[in-house]
Amino acid sequence: MYDVAVAGAGPAGASAALTLLRMGRSVHLFDTGQGRNKRATAVHGYPARDGVAPDQLRREMLEELGRFDGYKLTEIAVESAVVEPDEFRLSGAGQDLGGARRLVLATGLRDVFSDHRYGEFWGRGVYGCTFCHGWDARGQRAAVIGNDHQAATTALSLSALAAEIVIIGEGPAAFSPETGEAIRSVGIVYLDSMVKDVTRSPDGLITLDLAEGPSEFGSVFVRAAKEQHSTLAVTLGCILDEEHLVPVNRSYRTTVPGVFAVGEMAKVDGRRTSAMVVLAAGDGLQAGTSVHLDLAFSDAFGGTNPE
Fold first, then answer.
1. pLDDT value at position 85?
2. Residue 61 CB contacts under 8 Å (≥ 6 apart), including other chains
3. What does each of the 307 residues of the chain score in pLDDT, given as a tens digit?
4. HEC profile for the chain?
5. Which long-range contacts (CB under 8 A, 24 or more apart) does 185-188 make?
6. C-alpha span between 97 and 101 (Å, rounded)
7. Dist CA 18 CA 64 (whole Å)
8. Across-strand partners of 73?
9. Among residues 153, 109, 107, which one has the least CA distance to residue 131?
């Protein structure tokens, strides 16, 4: 039996595993390589690794973990767990996947698009986060889809990068007149126009077919809804909040004893965590610290952590 099973080897899960291994804990890591950023061409905002391909970063993280004794990687998704005294018996793909004393959920989120056409080019000209991909819009025409204050904020965040910014509202503006004046003052255009089609040219430009006619953009920013990538948290009995996130305390504990959750799938002490890779890795380190101390205190106090 392993000390800890970690479901998900994104930056949060891999960082938690690394922290635990460096503290002498045995770790069984489960991952199928289907992370949320798999379709992106590069990871951004990570010092010394800006621009690295997501698959390459994952490969290097797993190679690093492989240097430690007590580590095992299984490329199967954990689908359920039977809770036994001080042990979780894991299963997935019709197999018994072994046991662990503690379970860390780092299975992430999945993007859900109201219009599947944006999903086709997600990470390749269509983006969600300006702090991850705003640099890709430098010197280009950029479009922001939406009609609310968040759409206006997204547009304003691009103002030092994009040559031209157009908010395509697909309806009347829902932000305040003051916000409307502010965006106009910096040259941002608002169009109350519907997007009829989305295509991508061989040179990477995104064409939005609007009522006024087709319009080309170097980058398009659109919000996608989010849902849990895995049903494991619900299967275990973890609570989901109104945003479909798993609430955890400052120690990353869920409402299920022995189960921790980390990364963008979780809400820490009421705070929504970031999807940015560098911040997810930091959360993973903190979660790994909490799990290690939970095991240490439990052993010292006869199996019961006094927290």
1. 79
2. 9, 11, 14, 18
3. 999 999 999 999 999 999 999 999 999 999 998 888 777 888 888 899 898 999 999 999 999 999 999 999 999 999 999 988 789 999 999 999 999 999 999 999 998 887 778 888 988 899 999 999 999 899 999 999 999 999 999 999 999 999 999 999 999 999 999 999 999 999 999 999 999 999 999 989 999 999 889 999 999 999 988 899 999 999 999 999 999 999 999 999 999 999 999 999 999 988 888 878 999 999 999 999 999 999 999 999 876 555 5
4. CEEEEEECCCHHHHHHHHHHHHCCCCEEEECCCCCCCCCCCCCCCCCCCCCCCHHHHHHHHHHHHCCCCCEEEECCCCCEEEEECCEEEEEECCEEEEEEEEEEECCCEEEECCCHHHHHCECCCEECCHHHHHHHHCCCEEEEECCCHHHHHHHHHCCCCCCEEEEECCCCCCCCHHHHHHHHHCCCEEECCCEEEEEECCCCCEEEEECCEEEEECEEECCCEEEECCCHHHHHCCCCCCCCCEEECCCCECCCCCEEECCCCEEECCEECCCCHHHHHHHHHHHHHHHHHHHHHHHHCCCCCCC
5. 186/156, 186/159, 187/159, 188/152, 188/155, 188/156, 188/159
6. 13
7. 8
8. 29
9. 153
In whole angstroms, what is the distance from residue 274 CA to residue 48 CA?
20
Compute the Cα dihedral for 142, 147, 151, 152 and give only its sign: positive
User: Which residue reads 């479901």 in tokens?
Assistant: 7
Contacts of 123 (CB under 8 A, 6+ apart): 37, 39, 40, 41
Q: For residue 240, how far is the Cα from the chain centroid?
A: 16
